[in-house]
Design brief:
Number of strands: 10
Structural class: alpha+beta
Distance between the termini: 10 Å
Number of domains: 2
Low-confidence stretches: 1-22
Order of helices and strands: EHEHEEEHEEEEE
Largest sheet: 6 strands, mixed
Strand content: 25-35%
Shape: elongated
CATH class of the largest domain: Alpha Beta
């Protein structure tokens, strides 16, 4: 039985449930056009400290840095007197990640944890999860657990969660998946 669903654009095999009809070509969206998913934003408390992890340890490339202040950003954020520093980082084949620090008004640290509504995380693919885990652990990165593996039936996926300096959860996933024959 083939595990490759050719109608889905992906770099890993997707099991096909024969009882479910394959998706037809999606209808064109009147809102989303050629380029979607331009970036994800993560609010941080200390830009320099966050860049040590994201840029220096994980290897994301800094491609843009700017400061936003005034009526426009205050209106957009729904807060008075906003001053924000933004650094855009990129990884190959991934939307940009904007680290944003509210210089004014200073935000509070969220207490949302994995499983809480409103919590999210970003996943980065790595070629060797065990080595990435060891390297980051030696540099003092705090992990939620040791790496774990999940048998998806058609593949084994190796993953681990870790925290950025503000406690935001990030994930490493070994890619490509370990496919079963």
């Amino acid at each position: 039985m083939s595990t490759q669903n050719r109608s889905f654009q992906s770099s890993f095999p997707i099991p096909r449930n024969e009882a479910v009809k394959p998706l037809q070509d999606p209808l064109p969206s009147p809102i989303l056009h050629e380029r979607t998913g331009t970036h994800v934003s993560v609010t941080v408390s200390d830009m320099d400290r966050s860049l040590v992890l994201c840029r220096d340890m994980l290897g994301l490339k800094e491609v843009e840095r700017h400061r936003l202040e005034g009526d426009g950003i205050s209106k957009m954020a729904g807060k008075d007197s906003v001053v924000m520093e933004v650094v855009r980082l990129v990884a190959p084949e991934m939307a940009g990640i904007d680290l944003q620090q509210y210089l004014e008004p200073e935000g509070k640290v969220s207490d949302a944890k994995l499983g809480d509504v409103g919590h999210s995380h970003i996943c980065f693919g790595v070629p060797n999860l065990a080595q990435a885990y060891q390297d980051l652990r030696e540099k003092g990165v705090k992990f939620v657990s040791e790496p774990v593996s999940f048998d998806l039936g058609w593949a084994i996926v190796h993953v681990v969660f870790f925290e950025d300096p503000d406690g935001y959860v990030l994930e490493l996933m070994q890619v490509p998946y370990e496919t079963k024959v």
